[in-house]
Amino acid sequence: LKLTQPYVRRWPEAVALLALPKNIPTTMSNLHELVDEMWYLSGDRSVDMNYYSKRTLLAGVYTSTELFMTQDRSPDFQETLEFLNRRLADVGTIGRTTSQAFQLANFGVKNVLGVVQSFGVRLPFSK
Predict the structure, then answer these.
(1) Distant-in-sequence, close-in-space partners of 78: CB < 8 Å, separation ≥ 6
(2) CA distance linking residue 43 with residue 36, whole number of Å
């Protein structure tokens, strides 16, 4: 984001060019490379579904923050940094909520299977 600051007043024009249909493949590729590099430099070595979810969430945070920055008139883009911090907090909440939902679903499935087995039903994948 800091590298964009000198060009921020003209950035909407650049985004408009990037959004042209003929430029979408290159735009998406560049965005993927950017967020992939950010995650790599932060130590992420995911090879599972987290690889995709992390990069998708970061791409959303980055692009929304970049667009917010085009309207920011605060000194040193302070409001942009605050916006970024709020988006990162939102992503953290989404990650915790998703994990909690998965744990709850897993708990529910195990309980249902336990109830079914308690009625004498033998499940092919149980011990």
Answers:
(1) none
(2) 11
State in Å, rounded, how far the first CA of the chain is from the last one. 54
- Average pLDDT estimate for 103-119: 63
Helix-helix angle 49-69:24-41, to 10 degrees = 110
pLDDT value, residue 119: 65
DSSP string covering 59-74: HHHHHHHHHHHTT--S
pTM of the model: 0.70
Residue 105 has what pLDDT?
A: 62
DSSP tally for the chain: helices H, then strands E = 4, 0
Collapsed DSSP state (helix, strand, coil) of residue 12:
helix
Type of residue found at 19: A
At 60, the amino acid letter reads: G
